């Protein structure tokens, strides 16, 4: 079956997590993604956090499905020529090198435009133009600089980073959208353009509600859905809100049966206003549905701590799945805290292809996260990541190099 991005060729100059997330998505949508790696070494993640000696790590395999790998020394004069041939042939160059690395290699925007004016050059950088633009950046640096860490955690503790890779994978997602948008614009203009997704910007975009709250705080000095109200104090900046929900419906994480031994025996419980009477019935506090001190959402705000403690007395009598079943029957929004083990074993996620089992010639079978974006006319078929340089000869032949030329370039160390 045809794929949405059939015919689009991506020169994938990415490494680690942010860039590879982006190009993996494009590959899943059908683009031909040619990953250029350093001869002999490859993407550094091939050897990071290895669980099997001398076998590409899960870090690498889970971020580089459906790509082809070619090894080129792009600082070797003849290697540069191969890269030039690729630039002429491809639609998009995606890179997430340290600032200036592509220029130092001799491939400035101007030079790339000379070679291929239709080329879209897409980059992940840590920061956009400004005081930090030259910095190298990793995930947690972006989480801190983008506002996520200062707003995550509990009020009486330090800033906390989140397990969701919003700096790396989040920015890769942003970049992918930029690329398909630029490809669409090119259909009208015939021109390529530069696409930049800075990790600080990507994280901030995902923290948009916290900038909303900063302005509410500036104006009123208090935010009633935050746990600091009415018992604590607000400072000048948006505080860490623990597990309070980011929206207008108060929520919290509550213990369930077994919490003493199972670190994930918890449920997220939302006291959504329209189902308040049902919540009161379920937890056996029917009187709260009519008592003016509890019956309305504004009346409940100063009492949230007491209310959640009462609800927790009920959730602690149920497992998170039992509680989920009962609450869902009444349309009371809630969510079990699922461990990675539970997610890996969840049959419905396997069925939809969100969790896939992939076979790899060196590591055997492993689990990966499939394409989370489902297109009805462009199904995703997850294929294993390439071995280092696995497609060098194939891609070189497509570029017009003869077997003799390929051998000579290999002997010279250019590929
Ligand atoms: C992630 C990051 C910190 C890693 O830094 P690093 O390991 O030092 O790697 P760099 O990107 O600086 O690249 C190292 C060098 O390898 C060179 N190189 C890369 N591929 C090459 C190839 N195929 N052949 C020859 N040289 C190559 C680069 O040209 C660069 O050389 P230079 O420093 O002489 O200019 C940095 O790339 C970065 O800040 N990227 C942007 C933000 C980002 O994506 N961060 C998240 C990563 S998940």
UniProtKB/TrEMBL annotation:
SUPFAM superfamilies: CoA-transferase family III (CaiB/BaiF). This is Formyl-CoA:oxalate CoA-transferase. Belongs to the CoA-transferase III family. Frc subfamily. PANTHER family: SUCCINATE--HYDROXYMETHYLGLUTARATE COA-TRANSFERASE (PTHR48207:SF3). Homodimer. Involved in the catabolism of oxalate and in the adapatation to low pH via the induction of the oxalate-dependent acid tolerance response (ATR). Catalyzes the transfer of the CoA moiety from formyl-CoA to oxalate. Its EC number is 2.8.3.16. The keyword Iron does not apply. It is an enzyme of class 2 (transferase). GO terms for molecular function: formyl-CoA transferase activity. It catalyses: formyl-CoA + oxalate = oxalyl-CoA + formate. Keywords: Transferase. It comes from Paraburkholderia sprentiae WSM5005. Pathway: Metabolic intermediate degradation; oxalate degradation; CO(2) and formate from oxalate: step 1/2.
